[in-house]
Amino acid sequence: MSIAFIAVIAALLYLAAAGVQLANALQKNPGLNRSVLIITCFALACHLALTGDSVLGSSGLNFGFFPLLSLIFLAVNVACMIALAWRPLENLLIALFPLSAIAVLIATLGPDTAAAQQLPLGVAAHVGSSVVAYSLLTLAAIQATLLAAQDAQLRKHQIGGLLAALPPLQMMESMLFELIWVGVIALTLSIASGFVFMDDIFAQHLVHKTVLSIVAWLLFSLLLWGHHRLGWRSQTAVRLTVGGFTVLMLAFLGSKLVLELVLERG
After folding, report:
1. What is the CA angle 255-117-65, rounded to 5?
2. Which residues does 33 contact at the CB level (< 8 Å), separation at least 6?
3. Deepest in the core among 10, 13, 109, 193, taking most CB within 10 A?
4. Which pTM was predicted?
5. How many CB atoms are located within 10 Å of the residue 160 CB?
6. From CA 208, how far away is CA 183, in angstroms rounded?
7. Residue 17 and residue 34: Cα distance in Å, rounded?
8. pLDDT reading at 48 higher than 60
C-alpha cells in the first residue's frame, strides 16, 4: 500500500469523523459518538504511519515545514482525544479534523523542503516538548475562538446552530484556562530545554524563534496572572489567547515557512 494512498484514506477518515460530529452537534447529541471515536482511531493510526514515514528516516529526523506541520496536527489530535476523557471538547474536532486532513495530504504529497538530520537526544527532547506545547496551545486558540463566538451570540440573545450545542459559557472559559495552564507548562519546558541543550539558542537562525517563543510565554503568563489576580475573563482572555498563539505560530512555523519555502534554505 503506497504512502499516498494511506494519506488519502487518512484525510477521508478525518473528514468523515468531522462530518459525523457536526451532524451530532446540530442534533444536540452530547458527548462523543462511538462512530466518531472508531473513525478517529483509524484516522490517527494512518496519520501516525504517515508521520513516522515523513519525520523518521534512516539518515535522521526530518523536521521540515510540511512534516512538522503533520506532526503538530497529530499531536493536537491525540491531545484532544486524551482531554475528552475529562472535558467535553468534542466539538473542537469539527474544526480540527478538516485542517488535519489538509496537513496530512500536504505533508505526504508536498515537496521535501529540508534534509533529515541526526539530532542529539537533548535537542530531540526540546523539539518534542515544543510540539506538545504548540499542540496544547493550538487547542486553546480553537477553544478561544468558539468562546468568542458563543459570548457574542449570548450578548445578542441569539444562541442557535452549532453554538447551541456547546457547554455553558462558564465551563467553556474553565476549559480554556485549563488548556492554557498545561500549554504554558509545556512551553516553559520547551524554552528551558532549548537553553540547556541548544549550543546557541540566540544564533542568527534561531534568535527569532527564541524571542517570539518568550514573547508568547509572557502573553500567556500575563493572561493566567490577570485571570487569577484581576479576574480577567471572556473577551480579554480570547484576545490574549489568540495573540499569544499568533506569536507562537510565527515562532514555530513562520520562520520555517520563510526559510524553507521562500528562501529555500532547508
Report:
1. 30
2. 20, 21, 24
3. 10
4. 0.82
5. 7
6. 20
7. 10
8. yes
